[in-house]
Design brief:
By secondary structure, the protein is α+β, with helices and mostly antiparallel strands. The strands form two sheets. It has a seven-stranded antiparallel sheet with strand order 1-4-5-8-7-6-9. It has a two-stranded antiparallel ribbon with strand order 2-3. It is built from four helices and nine strands. The longest helix has 6 residues. The structure holds iron/sulfur cluster (2 copies).
């Protein structure tokens, strides 16, 4: 079954992953955008020439050595398909685009969700960048078990 019908990517449809060593060096962009559509804001936003496409319809590919984790691409992606990953001091971090209200707050505990929307654990918000003018996308960084950084792709605020 196609991911277009299924609604999420399976493991074997994901792009190559950066190594643990690379993740421990600095932030890195991980792009989950397999659909062949004419879209290129991510490439245009990258000042480090770290994203390549064979043509305007091809899926983007990140050069993990060139990427410095600047986060420009994540903010401009209309598909919310870009995640910034990091492992530091034994903890995992996923930065994701978030478009719901209320925005999470730094220090808040949140539910971690995988690509299917299933709960896979709890995490802590460590950083929030509110939307820019005329934008509705905030960026949220969540701390978690480092084994989860390739699974967690959304969060849910814990009410109360
Ligand atoms: S995080 Fe920055 S350097 Fe890395 S791919 Fe995105 S825009 Fe380029
Ligand atoms: S901007 Fe987002 S949706 Fe468009 S090609 Fe890049 S990753 Fe895919």
């Amino acid at each position: 079954m196609s991911y277009l019908v299924r609604g999420y990517l399976e493991e074997d449809e994901l792009p190559p992953k950066p190594s643990r060593e690379r993740l421990e060096e600095r932030n890195v962009a991980y792009i989950e955008c397999p659909q062949e559509i004419p879209c290129s804001p991510c490439i245009e936003s990258c000042k480090y020439d770290a994203i390549k496409m064979e043509n305007i319809n091809a899926p983007p590919e990140v050069d993990y050595e060139k990427c410095n984790g600047c986060m420009q691409c994540i903010r401009v992606c209309p598909g919310l398909a870009i995640f910034i990953l990091r492992i530091k001091d034994g903890k995992g971090y996923v930065t994701l685009a978030y478009e719901f209200l209320p925005w999470p707050k730094k220090g808040q505990e949140v539910v971690l969700l995988n690509r299917k929307g299933e709960e896979v654990g709890k995490g802590k918000v460590t950083w929030v960048l509110p939307p820019e003018k005329n934008d509705h996308t905030s960026l949220v960084r969540v701390e978690m078990d480092p084994e989860l950084i390739f699974d967690v792709r959304a969060i849910r605020i814990i009410e109360g």
